Structure formats: structure tokens, C-alpha cells
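All the exercises in this workshop are built on plain-text protein records. The record below serves as our worked example for the rest of this section.
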Amino acid sequence: MFNTDDIIVDKYQLKQRLGNTATGHQTWLAIEQLTQENVTIKLLAFSPQMQWEELKLFEREAEVLQSLKHERIPKYRDYFDLDKDLGGGIAWFGLVQDYIPGSSLQELVDRGKIFTEKETYNIAVEILEILIYLHELNPLVIHRDIKPSNLILGEDNHIYLIDFGAVQAQGAVTGVTFTVVGSSGYAPLEQFWGRAVPASDIYALGATLIHLLTGISPVDLPHKDSQIQFSDKVNIANYFTYWLEKATNISLEKRFSTAKEALESLQKKRTIIQSETFRKKLLQPNYSRFLVTKTDNKLSLYLPPKVTYKMGNTSLFITICIIAAVTLTFFPFSLLVLLFVYQYCKDMRVVFLEKAFKIQRTIFGLTYQSINASNDDIIGVFLYGSSNNHQVKIRTKNRSYIIGENLKEEECAWLAKEIQDWLYYHQ
């Protein structure tokens, strides 16, 4: 029906079909001819197959959007209709909004992205702030279709809420409406009964966050007593697990009733957990040789050699030179010398920045290993070993990196937690 570069209502030039839409629905990226700005156009075909309720929802979306003024909701621009002569024998209705460059969270998940706890927390905060705005309007507005495909991660790294096609606006949410809307896996039970309330949007947000953390759609996750089972598939703080379980509780009475309550709970529990983590902070053992320096954007760990030397007063250095000279005559001893140098004269420096980390090992000031890797690739920081031979391993998507060797368990646990805590607060 419509093609790229078509100009409709003498104002908008179609540039690209966006996403997958239902039968009789089309969504386009277009250019407004007058301003040369990018816009999004949603088109609805008024065909014999269309349910009358679809047009009512489309008109309601346009009406509600005109009244919304929020920086994370694409702004309403225009509403129009095309008669049959211009629409290929079918009447069409169009809704125009600002275009938000970026990717939907669904697109990112489909590409294999698993969101970190911090990323998911930040998304939750931004969406809850939008929901507070919507739910406190008079009349209040319930979105009714929050899910990853309706959340855009903009190029400015902020989250935008789109597609108000299922929106419900009314002065007081009472009685039952038989317009059943919402997406399976994200819509709570009361919504399918036609009784959506503000807490219904909170359920959908919680289910969406679980999807981002696990990479699995809520409908494909196990359920017990209609409750989504996800805790064994994520590695997040306990407070966040409890929060998600409450947000997605099947019982309205046990769920957060307002977005403001949900946001306050999320922020308060995180603050409590952070303060408790600080109080329980592991101390560096007295015997540990690690030198640690921390700033707002840098963590530096330095493990000096087990024996040191100074070029101006170098008894150890002279001793090594003598042993090295002897090995030229007595070759079998050369391996022993090399082992001695490797065990007692090497040092290691590990530096974590906000986006990457570097591991550098040297002997007598000469670098024999230098590794650079991205923090985004880190899967976890773990303690390995037995008896007095422990080590810390940083596992990434492609390999593992050892930090420290032959450490005692107490020192290894402290070191691992120092790294874990720094990464957690700087992701």
C-alpha cells in the first residue's frame, strides 16, 4: 500500500518501515516536509476486517498523547485521515509523534544483550518516574502495555516509553471494561479481567526487568502459583530480587500499589544494602603485600616483588648476576635461576577504570605481560584454590585472568570483594 518516499497529506515523506506491526497497522519513519525533522507515523487501516474497538483505541491514543508533556514520552504532533481515493480504496488514520533515535530494549535482547543489575536498576528508576507522572495526572493514565519493545534506549542513554495504543484514561478506575489489551507475560491477571489499575503497570515493568536480566521472556520462565520464577537465573542483590518479586506478585494486595511507593522502596532498600555492605567490608590482612589506591574513577592494585633491589645498593642484583654467570658454565642450574627470578623478582599492577581494566606484569622493570580488557565483558570475580594456594580470577566472556597467586584464603576473599565492590558501583 504505502512505499518508501511516498508523500502523504502533502506533509510527510515516508522513509523507512519500522518494526513488525499487526494486520492493518503500519509504523513509519518519515520526514516532515516543512521542518525536515524526523517523525514517527502510525497508520491504521479502516478495513472491513478491523474491529470497531481498534479505532476507538487509536483515537484514544491520539487524544491522550495531546495532553501529555513529559521529556521521556515522544511528543504528539498531528492526527489525520486519508480517504479511500488516496489510501488505495481503504480509509486510513494517521498519528504523528517525535521520532526517538535508538533501539528498543527488545531489539537489544534479541541481539543477545543481558542487562546488568545496575543497568536494570537505572531503567527501573526512569520508567517509574514516567509512571509517577502518568498515574498522578487528572484523569490518571494507565499505559497497559509496558514491555521491552515499547521501551526505547535513546542515543542519549535515556529510556523512552512509546506506543500508547492500549492506554486507559479515566477519572477514577472503577468498574470493569471489557477491552482486553496487554501482552502475554507482561500483563497481570486483573488486566485480562478488564480491571487495570496503576499497579498493573508496575507488574508489567517488573516482568520487563526480569526479561532484561535473564534474557528470557516471562511467558517462557517457570511459574509457581502464577508467580514468575527467576531468582535462580540471575546474580543480583537480594534487595532487588525481593523488589522484583513484590512488583510481579499476582496478588494486587501484595504488590506495590503506586509507582511512587515502588520507587521509594527501590531506592531505600538499595541505600540500606549499600550501607550494610560498607559496614561488613572485609579488611585487608596485615600480612598482605598488595598496595591499593582508589579514586572516584580508578582502582589500582600493586603487588610488589617478594624481594626488592636498588640499583645504587644492589647486593641482590649482584648475586643474581653471579648466579646467571655461573649458569653459562653450568647449564643445568639455569632453570633454577629462572624459577627463582620468576617467583621472587616479578611484580604485578592491575588498574580498573570506568570502562576497562589492565593487567601488567614486569621483572626488573621489563614488561613481560600486558593485558587490556573491557569491563562490559566481565561475567564475575571469583575465588579459586585450596589450602594456602588461592587466587582471584576475573572471568570474562572469552577467558579468565588471574590476579594474585599462592594467596591465603582470607587475603583472596578481601581482594575479590575489593574488585567486586568497585565494579558494582562503577558499571
Notes: Residues 171-178, 310-314 have pLDDT under 50 and may be disordered. The chain has ten helices and 21 strands. Residues 102-279 form a domain with the Transferase(Phosphotransferase); domain 1 fold (CATH 1.10.510.10). The chain has three domains: 7-98, 102-279, 291-306+345-426.
